[in-house]
Amino acid sequence: MVTYGCLTLLFLFVIVKSILYYTRRTHIVAPQELDKRLLKLINDEERAL
Q1: CA distances (Å), origin 42, targets 16, 25, 45
Q2: Cα 25–31–32 angle (5° rounding)?
Q3: List of E strands, 1-49
Q4: pLDDT in tens, 8-32
Q5: Is 5 left (phi over 0), alpha (psi -120 to 50) or beta?
Q6: DSSP H helices in 2-30
Q7: Would the pTM count as exceeding 0.85?
Q8: How far apart are CA 40 and CA 36, in angstroms?
């Protein structure tokens, strides 16, 4: 009986983590956009010097 309780908690934990992963995945910036942002940041810092 305790084993079933542990398996249930593990199953719920996996479901919650999966939902959080998929909701956060929609907010991740595409690699190309990330490259553009980093290059812009670097160029702005060089101009300030």
Answers
A1: 38, 26, 5
A2: 135
A3: none
A4: 999 999 999 999 988 887 777 888 9
A5: alpha
A6: 2-25
A7: no
A8: 6
- Residues comprising the chain, all counted: 49
Q: How far apart are CA 20 and CA 26, in angstroms?
A: 10
Residue type, 18: S
Tokens of residue 35, six digits: 């490259």
> Please, are residues 29 and 37 in contact by the beta-carbon 8 Å criterion?
yes
For residue 49, give the 3-state DSSP assignment.
coil
Compute the half-sphere exposure of residue 12: CA atoms within 13 Å on the CB side of its CA: 6
Structure tokens at 49: 């010097």
